[in-house]
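dumping this here so i dont lose it
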């Protein structure tokens, strides 16, 4: 079992930055690939980024490529998402997840409760 808790969301103006964190507890944090997903009101959950178990590989959604950076610190059991040049369309609840190195939500076994990011224009 892995428990995940996100933090760092908030209200920011367009063009601003936020850093999300996802603290994990439980066993075998480094055994899982980790991902960030987001869900805007009335829309389906969508892939944002994923990082491999030892952080040698990453995949980003086209919509965030060049603006967002995913990273992990296995010693601290923490996943991060650095978000720069934020746009109003980035407004959503952001979720971290642990599972396989994939871009689909069904590949992930464990999920956090989400943290809200709101970008004002």
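and the seq i came up w/
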């Amino acid at each position: 079992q892995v428990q995940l808790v996100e933090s760092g969301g908030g209200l920011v103006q367009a063009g601003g930055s936020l850093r999300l964190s996802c603290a994990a507890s439980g066993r075998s944090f480094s055994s899982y690939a980790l991902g960030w997903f987001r869900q805007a009101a009335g829309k389906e959950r969508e892939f944002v980024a994923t990082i491999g178990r030892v952080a040698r590989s990453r995949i980003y959604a086209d919509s965030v490529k060049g603006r967002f950076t995913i990273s992990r610190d296995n010693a601290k059991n923490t996943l991060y998402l650095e978000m720069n040049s934020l746009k109003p369309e980035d407004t959503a609840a952001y979720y971290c997840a642990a599972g396989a190195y994939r871009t689909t939500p069904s590949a992930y076994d464990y999920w956090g409760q989400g943290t809200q990011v709101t970008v004002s224009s």
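The two ends are 40 Å apart (CA to CA).
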